[in-house]
Design brief:
The protein is α+β, with helices and mostly antiparallel strands. It has helices at 25-41, 68-85, 107-115, 117-120, 126-136, 143-146, and strands at residues 8-15, 45-51, 55-62, 98-102. A four-stranded antiparallel β-sheet has the order 2-3-1-4, sandwiched between helices. Helix 1 (25-41) crosses helix 2 (68-85). The longest helix has 18 residues, at 68-85.
Length: 148
């Protein structure tokens, strides 16, 4: 095969530093649009995105020339700058992130999950949510290092 082809869906989740609930709905909407545009310029197609007051979910397609770490950096770095410009001066995202592969047959359900974040978080905290993902994906983790 002369071409290198791939389509890898990723569900990426990370929080604000120390889970601070500091991102307003207005700022979230503006930053979501900014992230989608920024990623598009890098060849990343965003299927869905939602920024909660204390964390972000994004479902996107990983370009074959980019690592997951590069993709997360392309989200965190410029969005931090924009959030600070919007008036949250001491803003930062947590140091780490969670990333999960999504089969094409589950893309619709993950999109629905992301869209329904406000409803979902009436029942589960961010930590509870992430623990459920770790369990579903059979990821061992150490509580001392996951939360920053």
């Amino acid at each position: 095969m002369a071409q290198s082809l791939s389509k890898v869906y990723l569900h990426i989740i990370f929080s604000t530093k120390h889970f601070e609930s500091i991102i307003s709905n207005q700022i979230a909407r503006e930053v979501q649009a900014y992230i989608v545009t920024t990623l598009s310029k890098k060849g990343v197609y965003t299927e869905e995105i939602f920024i909660n007051p204390d964390h972000l979910h994004i479902l996107c397609v990983l370009p074959r020339t980019m690592t997951i770490a590069q993709l997360v950096s392309a989200i965190k770095t410029p969005s931090s700058v924009i959030i600070k410009q919007k008036g949250i001066q001491n803003f930062s995202w947590q140091d780490g992130y969670a990333s999960f592969s999504v089969s094409s047959s589950r893309v619709h359900s993950v999109k629905k999950y992301i869209i329904n974040q406000p409803e979902h978080h009436k029942q589960n905290t961010f930590k509870e949510e992430l623990r459920l993902f770790f369990k579903e994906y059979d990821i061992e983790f150490d509580e001392r290092y996951v939360w920053d």
